[in-house]
Design a protein that fits this description.
It is a single chain. The chain is of the alpha/beta class and about 280 residues long. It is about 20% helix and about 35% strand. The strands form 4 sheets. A 6-stranded mixed beta sheet has the order 10-9-11-12-13-14. It has a 5-stranded mixed beta sheet with strand order 5-6-3-4-7, covered by helices on one side. Strands 1-2 form a two-stranded antiparallel sheet. Helix 7 links the parallel strand 12 and strand 13. The longest helix is centred in the last third of the chain and has 14 residues. It is flat and about 60 Å long. The model has no long low-confidence stretch (mean pLDDT about 90).
Length: about 280
């Protein structure tokens, strides 16, 4: 991941002593996501969002963001993505095919989203639901299959090991094989990068896969996963009340506190065989 970490000098205090040391930090930089769309004779560019992210996989981030926000329906809508950088910062300009009508609606964001922000900039409360449909996937899993996922995730989180400051999102198949993993200082960015990568690899809809989150499960992560058709979401941390509510409404199996050979089922228990 390009420029994903930076090094800095620090003063380390321990047991009453202070020493000079070096530390590794996760990079946090802005990325402007731009959209070029419209018929060939009337192309227009719009600035969609500025998100604070860890540099790397910016094309995946832009594609995944537009997909999970409902602006595009699939990878086929994209003609090309151009990355650029100047004195003002980095940008990912997504060019849609002339025949594609961008579904902007209430999804447009007009100000910076911080790394902690998942639904910042929505124009109204209804917009956070972004056209999600009920999940009809028939995927079933044995509880014992899930216990080993945190160890697999941790072994693959190279940047977390060096910084301690990044979130991860991982995609597993029904055999618990790791297919994709993305890290970012923003948990919603990690999920957008993951879904963007799945789009580019033509894996969507992801109705046969499990999403593993390295931390807590907030509503925005459930919504993004729901847009991609993911039926099972497991989090190493806790879910929020809205995450549980919407997972139940969208028929998504939501697991929390997956660690130490245990987890809680908050919705969709019928997909999990505990025997």
């Amino acid at each position: 991941m390009t420029n994903a970490v930076v090094h800095t000098r620090i003063k380390k205090v321990a047991a009453g002593n202070i020493t000079d040391a070096s530390d590794t930090l996760a990079t946090e930089d802005p990325l402007e996501i731009r959209l070029v769309h419209g018929p060939s004779h009337n192309r227009r560019q719009q600035n969609i969002s500025v998100t604070m992210r860890t540099p790397g996989e910016d094309m995946e981030l832009a594609a995944g963001f537009l997909f999970t926000e409902g602006v595009i329906r699939d990878q086929a809508a994209i003609q090309e993505i151009i990355l650029s950088e100047d004195d003002s910062g980095s940008a990912a300009t997504v060019h849609l095919k002339p025949a594609i009508v961008a579904q902007l609606g209430n999804t447009q964001r007009n100000f910076t989203a911080t790394a902690a922000c998942g639904v910042c900039g929505k124009n109204d409360i209804a917009a956070i639901h972004t056209g999600v449909s009920v999940n009809r996937a028939s995927l079933r899993l044995a509880a014992a299959q899930l216990f080993g996922l945190p160890a697999i995730l941790r072994n693959e989180q190279a940047l977390f090991e060096s910084t301690g400051g990044l979130h991860a999102a991982a995609l597993f198949n029904r055999n618990m094989e790791l297919l994709l993993l993305r890290e970012d200082i923003g948990r919603h960015n990690a999920v957008d990068k993951l879904i963007g990568a799945a789009l580019q690899q033509q894996l969507t809809p992801l109705d046969e896969y499990i999403l593993l989150l390295s931390g807590r499960a907030g509503f925005e992560l459930i919504q993004k996963a729901a847009m991609a058709g993911i039926p099972v979401i497991a989090a190493i941390g806790a879910p929020s009340s809205m995450a549980v509510k919407m997972a139940a409404e969208w028929n998504i199996t939501l697991l929390g506190f997956l660690k130490d050979q245990r987890f809680n089922i908050y919705s969709g228990a019928e997909r999990i065989d505990v025997k």
